Amino acid sequence: MAKLSFLSMGMILFLCCCSAAAAARTAPAGQGYSKYKDPGQPVNARIRDLMQRMTLQEKIGQMTQLDRASVTPEILRDYSIGSVLSGGGSVPFPKAKARDWIDMVNSYQNGSLSSRLGIPIIYGIDAVHGHNNVYQATIFPHNVGLGATRDPDLVKRIGAATALEVRATGINYVFAPCIAVCRDPRWGRCYESYSEDPSVVQSMTSIISGLQGEIPAGGRKGAPYLGGNDKVLACAKHYVGDGGTARGINENNTVADWHEMLSIHMPGYYKAIIEGVSTIMVSYSSWNGVKMHANRFLVTDFLKNTLKFRGFVISDWEGIDKITTPADANYTYSVQMGIGAGIDMVMVPYNHTVFIDTLTRLVKADVIPMSRIDDAIERILRVKFMTGLFEKPLGDQTFLSQLGSQEHRDLAREAVRKSLVLLKNGHKADPPVLPLAKNASKILVAGTHANNLGYQCGGWTITWQGGSGNNLTSGTTILGAISKAVDLDTEVVFSENPDPDFVRSHNFSYAIVVVGELPYAETAGDSTNLTLAEPGGDIIQKVCGAVKCVVVVVSGRPVTIEPRVDQMDALVAAWLPGSQGEGVADVLFGDYGFTGKLPRTWFKTVDQLPMNVGDPHYDPLFPFGFGLTTEPTGGQ
Ligand code: GLC
Description:
Rossmann fold, 6-stranded mixed beta sheet
């Protein structure tokens, strides 16, 4: 009997398990099993199951992205908001640590998970040269410097390192890379562009595989991809032609025929889609007078239907509002045109109720068809299911040690070395000046940018516009790197703006003069004269008139330097090197050779602009691709 009873108990237990599983699979919604929550189901089945459960308000909520400063977990819960972002400088509090970021992101995520359907948010941030909003993150060279390296593998490794630092803070989505093709250096965002040459920009989309992970062999090219919880969703931006506006005026009009658009501004997007980029951000700019945020032909007909982009399209910050001039002149019209053009998610980013109510009205009035909303939701959910967030929605401390790690700083130092471009090395008949001797008895370091970490990082660093000084974040200034590189008994004298008598009286072996541009971002960086920040020009004249000098220019783009070149013994373009100034010393003192090549034409005067490689009247100071080389000497 006992034996029988044992078997029957086992059978009962087995039958209970089967029936419970069967019940879960067939239980009506809301009572246990939900197909969309089952990771064993195909993504398309999960998308279909979830979409049929969603109300119109929940769908429109998923199309809404809000800045962290404008939301609470309750808003995320009640409106089923799709995404939260940190705009430039939007941090939990100044100098917040990784744990603080994780706690903040998780508090928002828990709000979303407590919504009716529990759809997790994705949290976006501009990690455009490392995790640059975050205190003590590794700050890599800005894109213009990476373009000078001509090294797609390096850039891919930078993407992987950046993904780890972003994940260290519990974030899973970055608004990078910017694949603009800057055609006029007067544009305030030219340093966010890898090059004026579309083929260089195209090669640098390798960063997407670093950020998101490599699509595995046999994987579907062109479909959005995310390769694990050490990777982040990427965003190719700003679609399309952002770098081609008239006179480089930010957010202005790009006048170009279809061939120019396809051959200059579009190639980066072909490659980004092949790399599996998950999202694409629309540009504020216009093409031949039509706002990109309202351009159905380019966003839907071409990007979605011709290029078969299957991720989601996101607006820029208040990009919908700026469809009209002035912005917000007719918000209903703006929402109708933006969503109608094919934008799937809107970076509102403040007033969610106005956006949600406006779009709801347009759908209910059948001005915006439900099919457009469903296209947006299918794309957003496809990306979200792919991230694994439904299974593992909360950030944890797995990658905490990655933020600002020495390994990443060494990688940034390598990138700095490879990004520097040697433009002059001694006067014509004279012997080369570089590499410099480490065992000189006394050297002078001068200039506004020698001892300023904020200046060498540039815009989009800790704050939107970047900042000044050595307390902004962690890193090594160029002065600090020089002091570490030279021999112990070499005296290093620093004077930011010395007078010639001082220079002459000290019998310096040589001087290193570090000057450049002050930090800026977006429209604040638009310039008509592209001059060095004062008193950079005077410092060059005074110091180089008194002693042998190497001038290092820290700038986001070529600047007006031609009148001073004859005064210099050597000239180096350092771009915006970021936190690891050691990379500058590495090549100045010969531990490594100079290898960088100009990613942009260096003009003589601004009235030549725009002037790009291949133009008929091409008369640069230094041409695109120019860069002198030196052999490593081991820094003797
Ligand atoms: C900005 C920029 C865009 C950035 C976004 C979020 O205005 O145009 O590049 O990703 O807003 O910060």
